[in-house]
Amino acid sequence: MSLRIVVWSGGLGIVLLLLAVGAAWLLSLPSASLAAVPPAIDSQEAEAAVAALKPQKRERPLIAIVGINDATETTDYLMPYGILRRADVADVVALATGPGPVKLFPALQVEPDATVAEFDAQHPEGADYVIVPAMMRDDDADVLKWIKSQAAKGATIIGICAGAKVVGASGLLDGKRATTHWYSLNELREKHPTIRYVADRRFVVDQDVATTTGITASMPMMLTLIEAIAGRDKAEAVGRDLGLAQWDARHASAAFTFTRPFALTAIGNTLAVLGHEQLGIELAPDMDEVSLALVADAWSRTYRSRAVTFAAKDAAIVSRNGIRVLPDQVAANWPAERLIPSMVGPRPAKALDQALGDISARYGARTTDFVAMQLEYPGQP
């Protein structure tokens, strides 16, 4: 037997072994997530959450949303900004740890209002609330130092989605009740064993720290914060403007887990390289930044497509509520068959449902379920 055949057969054996291990792993995954009914939230618990979120420092609170420049989660960063700005019950600023734009993941790039250093110089007494999105790094020294300093000045810290891992790394969740995105839960509990996980809640408030489940949970979280600041009527009005008829902390945690269809869709869509495409979103003045974030986020999580923004000029386009979005490409138009509809019309909650419907039509229902699972989106109540 020649050396070439020996090497070839040995390599084939390794490949077969890896395939066997991979197949065994896939078979070990559940074939479907559990169909679960969210348990009711009693009025006492809901009232306690609102009470804990009441502003403690200013009559008109100051809310800071912080991110790192090189990778902060798209919707975690932009949805709180857009919802709170449209409510007009607080002064809201989008911050970055350093100068320059914030590159969001998996899509979009924005110019923040200020750096954390500039914020500190302007507001030495600190913010009333600090919103912490998911970030590529949970242990960024600059952001952890700043979050801890804001908490020491009396700010309520709100971790959105896997932003709970950042808050956990700051030590502010030790001994507290909390939740996070389903995919990050085991990691959070392993790194911070004193955290008391609360299942079946889209958000959990424990004294001066709040956390949420997946990406879309920042919508009910922000509406609850608005209720704490300005009352239920105001929160309901903003909810209607978002296209959300009702909301609370109810959640069916068992419905969100790593399943065999989820894994197979991720693998299949990744390997379908000839079917990968860039889909264009034209940036327009006064576009709704919440709808933009949700739609760009959803399309960029199919593992088949990536949302790319474009505009006629290489300059930031200002959204409805003042966020400056930088185009990925300078272009006057985009091929019609690869153009994502404008964000001007639909209300945000409806825009997400529309995007999921369009994803289903383009790539199939399994990809839609795959995206909704990543967003931890239970659908409209």
Automatic annotation (TrEMBL):
Domain DJ-1/PfpI: 66-227
Pfam families (alphabetical): DJ-1_PfpI (PF01965)
Protein name as annotated: Transcriptional regulator
Biological process according to GO: regulation of DNA-templated transcription
PANTHER family per record: ARAC-FAMILY TRANSCRIPTIONAL REGULATOR (PTHR43130), DJ-1_PFPI DOMAIN-CONTAINING PROTEIN (PTHR43130:SF2)
Origin species: Mesorhizobium amorphae CCNWGS0123
InterPro entries reported for this sequence: Class_I_gatase-like, DJ-1/PfpI, INH-QAR
SUPFAM superfamilies: Class I glutamine amidotransferase-like (SSF52317)
